TrEMBL record:
NCBIfam families hit by this protein: PRK08243.1 (NF006091)
Native source organism of the sequence: Streptomyces caelestis
Domain FAD-binding stretches: 2-343
Name recorded for this polypeptide: p-hydroxybenzoate 3-monooxygenase
Swiss-Prot/TrEMBL keywords: FAD, Flavoprotein, Monooxygenase, Oxidoreductase
First-tier enzyme category under EC: oxidoreductase
Amino acid sequence: MRTTVGIIGAGPAGLLLARLLHNAGIDSVVLESRDRAYVERRQRAGILEQGTADVLRAAGAGERMDREGLRHDGIELRFDRRRHRVDFPALTGGRSVMVYAQTEVCKDLIALQLAEGGPLLFEAEALAVEDAGTDAPRVRFRHEGREDVLECEYVVGCDGFWGVARKAIPDELTQVFERTYPFGWLGILADVPPSHDELVYARHDRGFALLSMRSPSVSRLYLQVPDGTDAGTWSDEAIWDELERRFETADDWRLERGPITQKSVTPMRSYVHEPMRHGRLFLAGDAAHIVPPTGAKGLNLAVGDVVTFARALTHRQETGSPELLDTYSETCLRRIWQAERFSYDMTTLLHRAPGATGFEDRIQLARLERIASSRAAETDLAEGYTGFSFE
Ligand code: FAD
Ligand code: DHB
């Protein structure tokens, strides 16, 4: 099998890249190790930055998002039983975000790819990227019980944090920057209308909590839990009781309960692999970087990477100049480090580390107080949340 761009992974990064290349008249093949149902059901991110929504629209993949997605003009910060709303458009010259789940983005892109795009093979597991340093890189993969080879001009590793593409970059050329956190998120989906019409980020002495949503009738909620927690050890009642405590306010706000339909724990880490390119192999999305989820940057970063790659390759095909491909890694990393910083700031602002001292608690509250009382501090948060521009 032969193609111009071999794409490993059909998460948001790989699927969107295939669509962008198709629109630019460049052919690709997508290899995905899981089956379609698994990819379409995997519960992950929920917030699209304005720039991400704009990219999906421009790619012809925004129709259902514009019909069913929920535009959000702000978030609420909750601390010390108080509530503070951050008004995005007022602080950023009109920017907002979109609540539209990653599952739905993937379903829309898969449907488009199968109807109009190049081959998208499910249950096709990439085993290794070979000859990345040459003009003819190859992906060895297994599909329907047989080993095969995809001969490419370029390979893009969109295969997530546990993928194989990154391994083809020699260790001696690689620098990894990493931080783990001593807590994770217990996430639930519940069949109950969200108790607030915007997201609520709560800092509490018992730990962080987040109220989000998937639709007007489905809530998505998260609780900070110790690292290594087994979701099965939390009964539904214990989850609701703990959420209620952490969201408590001085006014008469109430958390509505409903049947919990899914429960899982996500570990938290910050991770950056530099460089994101070796020869004709490029890394995009979680294959190259991870942020802790606070502030919802993961999916949005993946979109930025593939937009940068598609532009660079189109430039190469149209002008013959490899310049933008050569600077791919540096271009992506500038935006990635801003998102790493933002996600780290949001995480340390709102989570209570085990063994945190009274001093650290007071500093957190002072940081929140500063956001609530200084337009400059609040603007910094709003700009970061609604997204850093694509270069
Ligand atoms: P992925 O979505 O991971 O896609 C990679 C794809 O590659 C997968 O489909 C995988 O099956 C496939 N693959 C892997 N190895 C191979 C192989 N060898 N061969 C072929 N295919 C392969 N972000 C937020 O903003 N908010 C959240 O609440 C949030 N929650 C998350 C919860 C979890 C459990 C995880 C893991 C991530 C979460 N994220 C969240 C991050 C966000 O979902 C990711 O940043 C986003 O999915 C990145 O997209 P991607 O396409 O780069 O990678
Ligand atoms: C969601 C996840 C996040 O990490 C976040 O900051 C906001 C919302 C969500 O899954 O809805």
